[in-house]
Amino acid sequence: MTIMADRSSDLALQEANHRIANHLAVLASTVQIQTSSLSRGPATFSRDEVKRMMQAVASKIISVGYLHRRLANVSGGCDLDLADYLIEHSTNLISSLSLQKCVHIAHKLNSNCRIHADQAQALALIVSEILMNAVKHAHPTGIPVQLYFSCRRNADGSMALEIGDDGVGLPEEFDMDLDAGVGFKLIRSLADKLGAKLTIQSDSLGLCFHFRLPPN
């Protein structure tokens, strides 16, 4: 019995170490993408711009740290309830970055939306990126932004996830292929990692990201 318990403990430790290494690798990759974009930007940045960049990096670290703590309580790589995960993760992110006065969360999440543990990493970073972009761009006047989540399971087993805001939307002449910044490119890259189809809807009532995840 003791030997079996020791083996189980060793396997759990190996799995945790593997998760940490994987999380850090993905985190480093996303930060490098943002770093490379700086070479194409202005030579100098204002204090507010630097603050936003540091918050963006911090949001990714917070997201990965929260995910690791959450998965530490999940045995055997079991599925996660997406509704609980999105609410807890976004609330934790807003609190950790002291953004309570800048963003509010609304949701319409079905209980049959579950994701694999290995999908949670990409979704955590997607939420982080969309949230920070909304805080920065949704309301140029500085009023608080409302971020909303919606998910449902389709008849074919795929899952529809929407993350949107109530802001001013993208500029009228915005070209997604030519004008998209590093944030949009990162979201697209993470959607590809999930095998998800991504469509983006923008109008004067806000910006919404629609993800269609394949059946589990």
Overview of this protein structure:
- The chain has 216 residues and is an alpha+beta fold.
- The chain has a single domain (2-213), classed as 2-Layer Sandwich (Heat Shock Protein 90), CATH 3.30.565.10.
- Helix content is 51%, strand content 19%.
- It is built from 5 helices and 7 strands.
- The protein has helices at residues 2-38, 47-71, 82-96, 117-137, 182-194, and strands spanning 80-81, 103-109, 114-115, 145-153, 159-165, 197-203, 206-213.
- The strands form 2 sheets. A 5-stranded mixed sheet has the order 2-4-5-7-6, with helices on one face.
- A hairpin with a 5-residue loop joins strand 4 and strand 5 (159-165).
- Helix 2 (47-71) packs antiparallel against helix 4 (117-137).
- The longest helix is centred in the N-terminal third of the chain and has 37 residues, at 2-38.
- It starts with a helix and ends with a strand.
- The mean pLDDT is 80.
